[in-house]
Every structure is written in C-alpha cells, then in structure tokens.
Design goal:
With about 240 residues, this protein is of the alpha/beta class. It has helices spanning about 5-10, 15-20, 45-65, 100-105, 110-120, 150-165, 175-180, 190, 210-215, 220-235, and strands spanning about 85, 90-95, 130-135, 170-175, 195-200, 200-205. It has a single domain (about 5-235), classed as Uracil-DNA Glycosylase, subunit E (3-Layer(aba) Sandwich), CATH 3.40.470. The chain starts with a helix and ends in a 9-residue tail after the last helix.
Length: about 240
C-alpha cells in the first residue's frame, strides 16, 4: 500500500490499523481485495442466515482467488480458507496450515486436528458447530511461524471472515494467533486464562493442539480454558451439538 493510499484511507481505516500493528509500513493490496463487502445481513435466523453467511464467504473465496500477496504462495499446494459452520457463532483461529492441511485444503486435519476434535468433545462441542480458520491461509515452509509481513498480507482475509460471520465468541489457538488478534506481544502463557475482547467479541486464547502433542503438561491449562469456553457458550445460549437450536 503506497504512502498516498495510506493517507487517503486515513488512520481510522480498520484494515490499515490492523496491518500497521505488525510493524508493517508498506503492503501490496489489490483494490478489489478491500472493496466494500455486501451489505450486512439482517436479523435472519436459522437456514436463512446460514445460507447468506455461506454465500458471502463463497464470494470472499472468489475475491481471494489464486492469491499471490506474499511469498507463501510460492510453495503452497492449496489455499486453506477455513472449514465448518460459519453461522455457528463460534470461531476458532489457529496459526497456519500444515502439510496435511496443504494437501486437503482444510484446516486442522492432521494429528493436531485430531487432538482438537478430542478437545472439543471434552466439553461436548461438535466440530460441526464451529468454524475453524488460521491467521495465514497458505502453509509456511517446514511449518515455521509465519512472519509479520506474511500475517499482515493475509490479515484482510481474516478481517473479512470475522466481519461476515460476526461470531459471538472467538478462541485463538497458540501464541501467534492470540497475539495477532489481540494486538499483543505477550506470550500465550500470559494471554490464556482470561477472557479478552476484540471489537466487543469475547476472545479466549489457549495453547495450540500441536503444543500439547509435544508437552503433555499443557493439557491441564487447556482443559481449564475449555471449561471457561463451555461456561460462556452456555451463557450465550450457543448450541454445542448437531441438532440443537
């Protein structure tokens, strides 16, 4: 994004405010990527809302297209946009796709994904009742942590996903996702255990399932975080199982 464009869009632009928090002062963004999204949905419920949200996400997928906004496109197999029920009100955000995700085009389908399913089941939460995505949509080489400029280049997509889905609660998995969403430099050990807010939306940071595969001692704090999530889901009246309304 050129200097004159930054001045034109203004310091109050949400996209630029988010991008600049990563220490980025210049970013390549195509005009069509930041075009206004379709109008906000009304207070429809049930299948009408689900269909509208799904249609708007499908439109976003087309807008993303064969994205080449950062270096991660060079070695990717598939863009991993997200998966699940986008109208559920429950959004999980991880770091980035791994090898299995890159092959299948879906998030959390490898060992970490299998563990995530078990973690969700521990609080009687079906994966079908949540939506899962990552802060970057292409696999970083060797599963390394995405760099600040890679996160910044991909950030507009996540911002649009959140805007379209308007979740009632967000769970971040791992330090990179927690820091990015909350604009913090704190480690996950300090971020977790507390309900944060982002634009009024409750955010619960917790450890990434991959960390639990390496360090079994992290299972206890994740369980505490999941109990916190379960209480909030009950307070918000969000269904946790397929078939619940």
């Amino acid at each position: 994004m050129k200097d004159d464009e930054k001045r034109g869009r203004g310091r109050h632009d949400p996209l630029w405010n988010s991008v600049s928090s990563f220490g980025i002062d210049e970013l390549f963004v195509l005009p069509e990527w930041i075009a206004d999204s379709p109008g906000e949905s009304g207070d429809e419920g049930g299948e009408g809302k689900t269909g509208e949200v799904a249609a708007r996400l499908a439109s976003l997928v087309k807008k993303v297209g064969d994205c080449k906004g950062c270096r991660l496109h060079e070695k990717r197999n598939k863009i991993v946009f997200g998966d699940g029920n986008p109208a559920s009100g429950i959004l999980f955000i991880g770091e980035g796709p791994g090898a299995n995700e890159d092959k299948q085009g879906k998030p959390f389908v490898g060992r970490a994904g299998q563990l995530l399913d078990k973690i969700l089941a521990s609080i009687d939460l079906d994966r079908s009742k949540v939506y899962i995505t990552n802060i970057v949509k292409c696999r970083p080489p060797n599963n390394r942590t995405p760099s600040n400029d890679e996160v910044a280049s991909c950030w507009w997509i996540l911002e649009e996903q959140i805007k379209i889905m308007a979740p009632d609660i967000i769970v971040t998995l791992g330090a990179p996702a927690g820091r990015a969403l909350l604009g913090s430099t704190d480690g996950i050990g300090k971020l977790r255990g507390t309900v944060h807010r982002r634009d009024g939306i409750p955010v619960i940071p917790t450890y990434h399932p991959a960390a639990l595969l390496r360090t079994g001692a992290l299972k206890r704090p994740v369980w505490e975080d999941m109990k916190m999530l379960r209480r909030m889901l009950d307070e918000l009246g969000l269904p946790r199982r397929e078939g619940e309304q």
